Amino acid sequence: MSDPNLSSLIYTRVQLDRAGINRKDEAWLAFKKRDGLARIVAMWRNRSLIVDDTEGPRALLPRREDAPKLAKAADEMVFLGLDDDNIPLFSVDVSHLDEHDAVALAGEGGSFVDLRQLGWMIPRDDAGLLAYARGMAYWHKTHRYCGTCGSPTESREGGHMRECANPQCGRPSFPRTDPAVIMLVEHPGDATHPPRCLLGRSGRWEFPLYSTLAGFVEPGESLEEAVAREVLEEANIEVPVESVRYMASQPWPFPSSLMLGFRATATTADIQIDPHELADARWFTPDEVLGFAEWDQAASNEPRLPRRDSIARWLLQSWLNDVS
Ligand SMILES: [Zn+2]
Fold it and tell me: Label partner for 195 (CA 20 to 30 A): which of 88, 172, 223, 244?
């Protein structure tokens, strides 16, 4: 299993200065857009541009001067930030092209791949950058019209705001992230019983992948209340809000979530699953979890671990470290 320190959480800690104040300056932005050394993060229908050669898979980030048609083909360039060498990075979405044309514009040797298929295999800075670009592309694609008056919206502030084009309205909207709680629920052990953790299996997975429970935060609800409600709804296990402890968070732009990771302590043990949410839920001891198969291991009917790039995996590993 991976090292459970915070820096092992994929899609976090991108080494990028987002330059949030500068990007509101149109002249500054126009100057950065003309920079031939600017790097372009190309998106095509929610897929990211990847190169996979003898060095292994990684993001393909053509320079603006090497791919001028790519920048031109995109309706809007989204300013992502400045790298350590002060080189600007922009993302473009060329979903309106067919795949062949999109790849041709991006340059030799690339292909568009779903980040979920290889997020943990590419360098972590690339993974975080591609996750950021993917989240931005999705937001732009789904906010082309004003939620108040229905008029078209236009990109502003380097793509970090969209403004309603109707002068009577002018409503601004900002990139949104949906908060979701994800929790490792533990049942403390005693002198004769080891501690156990509650893991569930979704009916959406064909294989027995057991993961931490999770769900979206609802309006009018604190994060602790969302944790307690989800655990009760999905497994009929009671978790007092006072026992809910924040652990870590992870951007999860598939399509637009922020996963907020918690640990919580159960006061009941009899599981009753909600069959609409889960196919199974069980208590597992640390030894049992250590015997799980890898999540993508073929031909195994044993319980499997959550995927490597998920905070579920991180929460599980950090619990194992604490109880083992
Ligand atoms: Zn409007």
Answer: 223
Q: Please give the CATH topology (third level) of the domain spanning 178-323.
A: Nucleoside Triphosphate Pyrophosphohydrolase (3.90.79)
CA of 154 to the centre of ligand 1 (A): 11
160 Cα to the center of ligand 1, angstroms: 17
Ligand 1 centre and the CA of 143: distance in Å?
A: 11
CA of 86 to the centre of ligand 1 (A): 36
Q: Rounded to two decimals, what is the model's pTM?
A: 0.92
Q: Which of 295, 142, 272 is nearest to 206 (CA)?
A: 295
Predicted local confidence at residue 298, as pLDDT: 67
Query: Which fold, 8-142?
Result: Nucleoside Triphosphate Pyrophosphohydrolase (3.90.79)
Q: Tell me the CA–centroid distance for residue 180 and ligand 1, in Å.
A: 28
* SS3 category, 132: helix
Indicate where the chain has its CATH 3.90.79.10 domain(s): 178-323
DSSP annotation of 65: G
HSE (side-chain half, CA atoms, 13 Å) at 84: 3
For the chain, which ranges sit under pLDDT 50? 1-2
